[in-house]
Amino acid sequence: MSHSPAAVDATAPADRHDVVLSAKDIVVEYHAKGRRPVRAVDNVSLAVRRGETLGLVGESGCGKSSMGRALIQLPPPKSGEVRLGDTLLSGLSQKRLRPLRRRLQLIFQDPISSLNPRRTALDIVAEPLLLSGHPDPRGRALAALAEMGVDDQMARRRPHELSGGQCQRVSIARAVVQEPDVLICDEPVSALDVSVQAQVLNLLERMKAEYRLSMVFISHDLAVVNNISDRVAVMYLGRICEIAPSTDLYADPRHHYTSLLLSSVPRPGAPRVPVPRTGDIGPNTRAGVGCPFAPRCPAATALCRDETPPLVEAGPDRAVACHHPIGS
Question: Coil, strand, or helix at residue 253?
Answer without folding.
Answer: coil
